[in-house]
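In the lab's daily routine, each protein ends up as an entry in a very long ledger. A line of letters takes care of the sequence, but it says nothing directly about the fold. The three-dimensional part falls to structure tokens, numbers that each stand for a local backbone shape. The outcome of that step, for a single protein, is printed below.
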Amino acid sequence: MSVCDPKILVERTNLLKECADAYAYAVEVVSKNSVMAEDISRSCAEVCYQSAEECLSLDHDALAEELYNMCYQYAVLCEKIIGNNKPAYEKAQLKESS
């Protein structure tokens, strides 16, 4: 297993935290029956989709696919809490890492 660049790992960790925070906020807004729940949930999903793509753009190391999948899954969850069961973006086709 290759060693991950610590700077990239920190950047990806921050992106993943951003996704977790976005999802938590979407859940909070939806649970309060806010009139903005749908818009905010979609915005939170967009943050997560962008974070997922950014994870891949940093480097393709041993953790790239796993961290991408976690961010992507948060985006899907943001959409599901408002009843959208079809993701707005298709999952990226990832290359096999050697």
Observations:
- The domain at 6-83 is CATH 1.20.1270.360 (Substrate Binding Domain Of Dnak; Chain:A; Domain 2).
- The longest helix spans residues 6-31.
- Helices lie at 6-31, 37-58, 64-80.
- The two ends are 9 Å apart (CA to CA).
